[in-house]
């Protein structure tokens, strides 16, 4: 049986030229030496062989050395681990026993602690002779193979023809540049425009090829404004000037709507899917800049073609090889496997799943009050009103402009009595002002990132001269979290939540508008090694701070612009500074699908576009689509015209109000999906092929998406469907208190509804230890596509009849197509937390 299925006529796209962004401020691959070197290597150039294979501490361990080691290059150490549910972890690093110049950075606090309990401790391995290889059992019908010469690692099925799933170094492109010791006269500097990178340890990049078998397309590796299915970037039929997909967190002003250029976040996780309906995945845990090529068929003439394989080239400036192979085989299996490594999405408070109203900036308390009252006047629901940087005293975070916002607590309380919240912005750049309490404390305690000479880094951002909190340190993160207490954040209340912007980090006068790569973090870690994770640690510290503020009782809400694997555990994200253009509306869908696929399910795009002034039709259409974004927020630049939903004429106001009402009508469904994501990692917003994995027509569809498994949003020529051809349907509902962590202790309701043979039943599917009582009565039940004309409905165990009617669908802004039969059961008298049956007579 299928769940309730809706197909809504919403999207209307037109072509329009995008505003240009300043490409010259950012490096291309040819201007990035490690990328240029890696791309120029020919297949088969890797000469490493695996030797001294053994089992150590439950892992398969080997040394990697050049076959003809005339240059006496130090060996690398390979370690392969196996985990339950089809996960293989491969790590390669320098040999620490040989005292390299320093230890390479290993990204902390991303892999969840629960993963270790799922480790399968290896006790032995099998050997194969043709070619020489070591083989370990993965479980679930798979095995991992380390081929000795030439070195290669792959996962394959154990039975049948031992089909390969994912492999590394099948084309011999692996390269690992070892750290250097700078001698007198050595000059390892790199220059870009007016900036110089000292590179004290020389070149330290890593690159390798990864192949996905039985695959039609690959997806993932956000954040880019481009198609959902990743396009080839190198090889036959691809322009020589084509760039790889870049992963380097940057503040990109008015980004292009079609480009492989990196944006605000980086998640090096790729998913493949093919005509067999099977999926697999590959994840590289690395926080340095990364570039990834999708190689066109025929790129390697020596390897031939026609094997339904997609080949990719992964390149990083620094770090270690710390990679995960996910065997699938179903699409949802892959995302579950990834979630078991990096964690599932945090369960949001119920209010956070509603509509958010934001602008740079609501100018004062009177403006806030007027906007709030207008929502009531026009019967438009909303839950959160946001304040951007202008609410502060001179861009000093944790402060208020005393002239514009003299009574912040009273302002928040006026919203709170209506059940509404406020969000204020707190960015990582701290104004360098000796009279500013936060700067003074951070300076005295040595909590800032340092420049290459060891002094507090001084960059330029919204406040002018600024320094940046060093979020790599757990001690500093804990200190930062304490800034959100009511004592330290004067004027804050329990109904105030936080927005972390500019946390890539953005540095207006820095190279590529960010922090220099040779800046230093605690422990001597270079910024180049941790760059992509900086915003993640900032998001983590802020979220943990709100939990501390509430003494561990209430769930936090923190929006972040920068993302990294694990971000899903700490809050929501949005796609940054988009533009009021039809093409930006269009590209929001593949961007959000990609984020959901890679763990970041609580995501959205600014409704109407951040830059520019949308024409009324575009704004209306954006609200109609945005009502199905997991994170639903209207936002705009301060140079744009005001665009609250009531400012565009009666008819457009009605359409936008209907769209927002639709969201609120569907909130129980959305909240249930957020709980599913919290438990399993399966996203709220899903590509069609996640629900229909063998339908090849869905594999490259960029404009349609599923909300859960029961709501399909698609372009015009569509209809509304609920019951399948067998007149059957099923679905689930999840309810908790909407704000606390009590759901983790079993305080929730989880019900399944099944309609079959004219009978609708509600049954409990929560575990025995889960319990939450609710007096909530179901007001109405709507069945779409019911073929017969019933006379009545019998409710059991109440043994009473309920009102029924046949007619058009009227539920928020949802509209059924003409000819669709809609049966409504009104006031059945049953509670949401009880078992019951309704028979259609």
UniProtKB/TrEMBL annotation:
Domain Glycosyl hydrolase family 31 C-terminal: 681-719
Keyword Hydrolase: yes
Presence of the UniProt keyword Nuclease in the record: no
Signal peptide: 1-20
Domain Glycoside hydrolase family 31 N-terminal: 78-293
GO MF entries: alpha-glucosidase activity; carbohydrate binding
Gene Ontology biological-process annotations: carbohydrate metabolic process; N-glycan processing
Pfam families, sorted: Gal_mutarotas_2, Glyco_hydro_31_2nd, Glyco_hydro_31_3rd
Keywords of the record: Glycosidase, Hydrolase, Signal
InterPro entries per the UniProt record, alphabetical: Gal_mutarotase_sf_dom, GH, Glyco_hydro_31_AS, Glyco_hydro_31_C, Glyco_hydro_31_N_dom, Glyco_hydro_31_TIM, Glyco_hydro_b
Domain Glycoside hydrolase family 31 TIM barrel: 346-673
Entry similarity comment: Belongs to the glycosyl hydrolase 31 family.
Protein name (database record): Probable glucan 1,3-alpha-glucosidase
UniProt source species: Brassica campestris
């Amino acid at each position: 049986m299928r769940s309730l299925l809706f197909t809504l006529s919403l999207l209307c796209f037109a072509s329009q030229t995008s505003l240009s962004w300043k490409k010259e401020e950012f490096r291309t691959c040819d201007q990035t030496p490690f990328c240029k070197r890696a791309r120029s290597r020919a297949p088969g150039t890797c000469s490493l062989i695996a030797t001294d294979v053994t089992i150590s501490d439950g892992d398969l361990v080997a040394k990697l050395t050049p076959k003809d080691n005339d240059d006496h290059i130090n060996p690398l150490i390979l370690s392969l681990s196996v985990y339950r549910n089809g996960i293989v972890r491969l790590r390669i690093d320098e040999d620490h026993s040989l005292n390299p110049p320093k230890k390479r950075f290993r990204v902390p606090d991303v892999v969840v602690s629960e993963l270790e309990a799922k480790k399968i401790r290896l006790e032995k391995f099998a050997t194969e002779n043709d070619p020489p290889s070591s083989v370990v059992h993965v479980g679930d019908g798979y095995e991992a193979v380390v081929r000795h010469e030439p070195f290669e690692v792959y996962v394959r099925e154990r039975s049948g023809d031992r089909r390969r799933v994912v492999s590394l170094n099948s084309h011999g492109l692996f390269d690992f540049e070892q750290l250097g010791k700078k001698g007198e006269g050595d000059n390892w500097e790199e220059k870009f425009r007016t900036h110089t990178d000292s590179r004290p340890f020389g070149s330290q990049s890593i690159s390798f090829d990864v192949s996905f078998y039985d695959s039609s397309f690959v997806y993932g590796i956000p954040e880019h404004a481009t198609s959902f299915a990743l396009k080839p970037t190198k090889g036959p039929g691809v322009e020589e000037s084509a760039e790889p997909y870049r992963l380097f967190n940057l503040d990109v002003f008015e980004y292009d709507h079609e480009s492989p250029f990196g944006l605000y976040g980086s998640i090096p996780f790729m998913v493949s899917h093919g005509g067999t309906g099977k999926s697999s995945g590959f994840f590289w845990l690395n926080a340095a800049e990364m570039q990834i090529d999708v190689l066109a068929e025929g790129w390697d003439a020596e390897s031939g073609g026609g094997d339904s394989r997609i080949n990719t080239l992964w390149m990083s400036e620094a770090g270690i090889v710390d990679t995960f192979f996910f065997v699938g085989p179903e699409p949802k299996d892959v995302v579950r496997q990834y979630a078991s490594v990096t964690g599932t999405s945090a369960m949001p408070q119920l209010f956070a799943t509603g509509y958010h109203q934001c602008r740079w900036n609501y100018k004062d308390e009177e403006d806030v009050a007027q906007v709030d009252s207008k929502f009531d006047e026009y019967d438009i629901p909303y839950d959160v009103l946001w304040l951007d940087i202008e609410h502060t005293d001179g861009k000093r975070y944790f402060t208020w402009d005393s002239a514009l916002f003299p009574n912040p607590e009273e302002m928040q309380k006026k919203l709170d009595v209506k059940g509404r919240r406020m969000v204020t912005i707190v960015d990582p750049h701290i104004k360098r002002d000796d009279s500013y309490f936060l700067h003074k404390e951070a300076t005295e305690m040595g909590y800032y990132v340092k420049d290459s000479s060891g002094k507090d880094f001084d960059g330029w951002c919204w406040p002018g001269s600024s320094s940046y909190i060093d979020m790599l340190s757990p001690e500093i993160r804990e200190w930062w979290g304490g800034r959100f207490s009511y004592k330290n954040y004067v004027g804050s209340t329990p109904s105030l939540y936080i927005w972390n912007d500019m946390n890539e980090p953005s540095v207006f006068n820095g190279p590529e508008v960010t922090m220099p790569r040779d800046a230093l973090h605690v422990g001597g870690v270079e910024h180049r090694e941790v760059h992509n994770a900086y915003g993640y640690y900032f998001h983590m510290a802020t979220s943990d701070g709100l939990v501390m503020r509430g003494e561990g009782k209430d769930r936090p809400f923190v929006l972040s612009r920068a993302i990294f694997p694990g971000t899903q555990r700490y809050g929501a994200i949005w796609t940054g500074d988009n533009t009021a253009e039809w093409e930006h509306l269009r590209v929001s869908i593949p961007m959000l699908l990609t984020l959901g696929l890679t763990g970041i399910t609580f995501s959205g795009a600014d409704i109407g576009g951040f830059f520019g002034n949308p024409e009324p039709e575009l704004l209306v259409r954006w609200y109609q689509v945005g009502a199905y974004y997991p994170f639903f927020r209207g936002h705009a630049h301060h140079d744009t015209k005001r665009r609250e939903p009531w400012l565009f004429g009666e008819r457009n106001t009605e359409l936008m109000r209907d769209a927002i009402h639709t969201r609120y009508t569907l909130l129980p469904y959305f909240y249930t999906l957020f709980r599913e994501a919290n438990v399993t990692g399966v996203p709220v917003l899903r590509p069609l092929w996640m629900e229909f994995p063998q339908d090849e027509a869905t594999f490259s569809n960029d404009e349609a998406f599923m909300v859960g498994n029961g709501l399909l949003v698609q372009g015009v020529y569509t209809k509304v469907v609920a019951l399948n051809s067998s007149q059957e349907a099923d679905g689930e509902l999840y309810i908790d208190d909407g704000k606390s962590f009590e759901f983790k202790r079993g305080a929730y309701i989880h019900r399944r509804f099944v309609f079959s043979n004219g009978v609708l039943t509600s049954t409990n599917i929560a575990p025995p230890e889960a319990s939450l009582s609710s007096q909530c009565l179901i007001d109405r039940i709507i069945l779409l596509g019911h073929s017969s004309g019933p006379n009545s409905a019998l409710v059991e165990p109440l043994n009473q009849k309920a009102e029924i009617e046949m007619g058009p669908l009227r539920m928020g802004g949802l509209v059924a197509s003409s000819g669709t039969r809609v049966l409504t059961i009104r006031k059945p008298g049953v509670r949401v937390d009880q078992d019951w049956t309704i028979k259609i007579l």
